[in-house]
Amino acid sequence: MSQIVSLFQAAVYFGTVILFGAVGEILAEKSGNLNLGVPGIMYMGGIAGLIAAFLYENGTANPVPAVAILVTLAAAFVMSMIGGLIYSVLTITLRANQNVTGLTLTIFGSGFANLFGGNLNKMAGGAGQISVAFTSGVYRTKIPFLSDSTGVFGEMFFFYGFLAYVAIIVALAVKWFLNRTSVGLNLRAVGENPATADAAGINVTKYKYVATCVGAGISGLGGLYYTMDYIKGTWATDGSIEKLGWLAVALVIFATWKPNRAIWGAYLFGLLSWVYYYLPGLTRSSQEIFKMLPYVVTLLVLIVVSLRRSKESQPPASLGLAYFREDR
Amino acid sequence: MSKAKKHEPLVHITKRGTLPLWHNLAIRAIGLAAALVVCAIVLYALTGLNPLKIYGAMFKGAFGSARRVWTTIREIMMLLCIGVGLAPAFKMRFWNIGGEGQVLVGGVAAAACMIYLAPNMPLAPVLLIMFVLSALAGAIWGLIPAVFKARWNTNETLFTLMMNYIALQITSFCVSKWENPYGSNTVGIINPTTNAGWFPSIFGQQYMLNVIIVMLIAVAMYLYLKYSKQGFEIAVVGESTNTARYAAINVKRVIIRTVMISGAICGIAGFIAVAGAGHTISTSTAGGRGFTAIIVAWLSKFNSFIMLGVSSLLVFLQRGASEIASQFDLNDFVSEMIKGMILFFILGSEFFINFKVHFRTARKETENK
Amino acid sequence: MEANLAVRMVNITKTFSHVVANNNITLEIRRGEILSLLGENGSGKTTLMNMLSGIYFPDSGQIYVNGEEVSIASPKDALDLHIGMIHQHFKLVDVFTAAENIILGLNEKAVLDLNGVRRAVKEICDRYGFVIDPDKKVYDMSVSEKQTLEIVKVLYRGADILILDEPTAVLTPQETEKLFAVMRNMKADGKSIVIITHKLHEVMEISDRVAVLRKGEYIGEVPTSQTNPQQLTDMMVGKATTLNIGRPEPNGLTERLIVKNLTVKDADGVKKLSNVSFTAYGGEILGIAGISGSGQRELLEAIAGLQDPEEGSSIMFIPPDKEASELVGRDPEDIYKSGVGLAFVPEDRFGMGLVGSMDLVDNIMLRSYKSGKSPIADRKHPRERANKIVEDLEVVTPGLGTPLRRLSGGNVQKILVGREIAAEPSLLMTAYAVRGLDINTSYTIYHLLNEQKAKGAAVIYVGEDLDVLLELCDRIVVLCAGRVSGIVNGRSTRKEEVGLLMTRLSGKENANE
């Protein structure tokens, strides 16, 4: 039983990281921008949060939890939005190829984050691995009372830091925004058919910019959750954020561009990613084979979607294309 | 007229026709110069070095000694090989971002040969077998997404991306099978004493064979794309599959064939990385080059010789930056960041080659007369 | 300034790279009138109106709306000035419902109020006589439903000036009548309507005033009541022309292509052709007439192996001195390999017939690069052929190495037709071969087709201009909604007869299957 609970928890931890990444990317893709810079953006969000926490903790004798959270959240969100802004300027204004720009952003973000992640302590005159125990502790605070008084139920559902719940709320909010609001309707139109949206008086450029930047901000929270909660306020230059970032891109496909579907998809991916750890009798090498599961499942979904051709589960029709009004 | 709406667009963009070559080159040069200036500023901020000295130090890092020169050349060849491999797929508008995985499976095949075959066979046939098997492994890794693209139009960008990670796990699997010493979770240098299955030195140069193989492939690819019938087919399919079908081209076959060639060359890059450079296999054997090479191929418009130039520039920056990084006790990632920044500028400067920007100021004067 | 002027466009000029689409045009639109903007394909009608609706921005000139000078930089600006345009290619989002499309971009309320939209739509429909289901997805709609939706959308946004770009091109006669009735209702309601068209009978039927453009120049305007089709034609084409296309008697007719029960469905399973049967003979020009989208494209593509016909279809091809062969079930590669001489000038030049980014030689190669066993592509012979085409057809190009996209439409079309003819086909199919070409080039093309006919090739000519079809073709197959509604003799039929067949299936109501 405890094994199952522990697997469930691992799935939620893991899923939360990619859920942020995927929901942000859905927002960007709904505007027609296929942003392959998600891993880079998550890196940038992660490191910005870490740096902010580091500076804050080193700068005050008595850090306040609320301030720590506010400072790190803001830093992560803003830095990720800068990543989205770079991508937007290049692809929307300068009409560079989206795939190439996204990959470049991933290269840049990973370099930027790992440079500071690996050297921050040194730069500040310290030694050894960076650690922001206080802020991380705040992020990892479980729901009081409910988490330890409701037994297994509590361990499964109330055992997580607040960002895990924020992720679900953000996903549902994005779904509501896309389907129920005027601005959401306009945004979907931009991604489906920018010429039509333009003709309807929608400022295509503005929508693409805002959706991509805000989407990047949300994606970046995945990086923040990873550094603060998942690896407990440290930094690892092992490329795991990049892997998670690509899984977030995969999750967008898995969810067929629907944020609500991304929620359970994220946890399923988490489950698939960790199941090897809980299966008895696996050798170290055969575990590696099991770690393929999320990627294989995504491939299967990709194939099924392309076979079914249902109108409702297709990517936004203009995904990947730059819009130029006077094209003829 | 005061009440009338007068918010004319401030800037106005139109597509350009052709641009004179010098103009084209000048725009690129400005973009590159801007990139170098920004990089110098960033490096200055990190290290406090005089920006001019930074590039001196970078030059020293890349070309400071014969050994460094050859390491730089080896790295250029690696990047070029993958770029050349990706070129035909991209020319066909097949977004093969699976170069990373194709390199890895090629590397795994080569490493397997080094471990199981090389100690018991003469070098020449072993290298040949490694070459063929690596190419085959890479080709298969390209074949799978290609078949789905050709048959069901499955999105290849995302498919090849996933294939990278499957390849990565296969590599991890093999690494833990072959680990040496036990428990290290690395393969270590394969055949460190016998050098079995290693590239031989040519003219006393350890990496000469790398250069020969890659340059042969690069030139062959240039000729293939420019002069062969298959190269023509690739260009037509890339422009429009409808036109291709109209021209009696079997689009499915061309897609599958081209992506297999693409994958095979990436597989060969894996072979070179293992037998000709690292003499080991790990999950970082491809080291992100599969992604960087996409940008190399794209910016070079799939021309082998321009790719050589772009690869050289990127490797120079990378090697130079990591030299500075090690001097200042920073980690290697500074070069990744610099690479990203340079590419941002080059990508951005493309815009000014394809589009013309008009500022609307002249018209007002005539109106107010 | 006249008080009843809704719009005045003064000295408008618009240039696309080298082509002057509108040269110094001045146009007035009055309140409560229906104005026809008449001109041939490529005369600059749509470009001019696109500047009024904010799609393009003029290079020079002024626009006045209700007497005030305005700057229309975007469609939103246009809508704010109560100008709405219904484009030929509908600007609708496929995966949205009608209601969602209607409120798109309005942001009337932060949270969508679809019920309110439904009510407002119903009100508009009742007022002018539309029928529309607000919850239907656009991808489930017929063309005429989409058009209705476009008009309702523009009205919902409060447009007082409506521009309709060739609205009847895709409609059946019944649907056209309904549209005209609605237009009259709108006019009675005080709206100004501009209808872009090149169909004279529609101009005469619906409009109050006609303005004519020709090759980007403003030719003039006349009240409809004081003009006649002949005068309008003169204005449109420059001088009164009887076409005088030569039509040599066919000689040595031989069966070349026997199409039987050809049925083709599109990707969505909609029948584009049903049970089409006819025979094309070597030595004649067989015309295909029909309103656009009646299955012309699918027919030619099916013959070329680019469509996958349904069970029971048969296309028998009988090359001279060779065995007859069945083309259904074979792809273009297969057809090419069997060595049958089949040439095809498709409707979509750059989408299918040519590659815009490639030069002349490579485009000539497109049809012949496979010849020979060498893996190296032969560019020598295509170069010679390219030179010959440039010379024979007087193609204006800076050089053989110029990408075709940089050439003018007429030159591109000459290259395409020239290449297809150069292969000396036994069957030549052309779709809208003279679309967008000037008169002289058109005659060059007609002459080339007649030459092929004289050589014994079977020529299939899909055209939109009935006068040309009647003067050029020996026989005419008329398509209506994917069916053959009649096969007539080009020499003895009358325009009215063909026109009737185009819109009706042998006297019956046009059944939309």
Can you tell me about this structure?
The complex is a heterotrimer of chains A (328), B (369) and C (513). With 328 residues, chain A is mainly alpha-helical. Chain A has 15 helices and no strands. Chain A is 75% helix and 0% strand. Chain B has a domain at 80-306. In chain B, helix 3 packs across helix 12 (304-327). The radius of gyration of chain B is 24 Å and the shape is globular. Chain B starts with 10 loop residues before the first strand and ends with a helix. Chain C folds into three domains: 5-237, 3-Layer(aba) Sandwich (Rossmann fold), CATH 3.40.50; 242-341 and 424-513, Rossmann fold; 351-423, no CATH class. Helices cover 33% and strands 25% of the residues of chain C. Chain C has 17 helices and 20 strands. Chain C has helices spanning 45-52, 75-80, 98-103, 114-128, 143-156, 173-188, 200-206, 229-237, 296-303, 332-337, 349-353, 360-368, 380-392, 409-422, 439-454, 466-472, 495-503, and strands at residues 5-16, 19-30, 34-38, 60-65, 68-70, 83-86, 161-165, 192-197, 209-214, 217-223, 254-265, 271-282, 285-289, 314-317, 325-326, 342-345, 427-431, 458-462, 475-480, 483-489. Chain C is globular, with a radius of gyration of 25 Å. Chain C starts with a strand and ends in a 10-residue tail after the last helix. Chains in contact: A-B, A-C, B-C. Chains A and B meet through helix 3, helix 4, helix 12, helix 14 and helix 15 of A and strand 1, helix 6, helix 11 and helix 13 of B.
Low-confidence stretches of chain A: none
In percent terms, what proportion of residues of chain C is strand? 15-25%
Question: What is the CATH C level class of the largest domain in chain C, in words?
Answer: Alpha Beta
CATH topology of chain A: ABC transporter involved in vitamin B12 uptake, BtuC
The greatest interface between two protein chains, and residues involved on each side, is:
A-B, 55 and 53 residues
What is the average of the pLDDT values of chain A?
A: 87
Report the biggest beta sheet of chain A as strand number plus sense, adding barrel if it closes. Answer: none
**What global shape of chain C is seen?**
globular
Give the distance, in angstroms, between the N- and C-terminal Cα atoms of chain C.
53 Å
Structural class from helices and strands of chain C?
alpha/beta
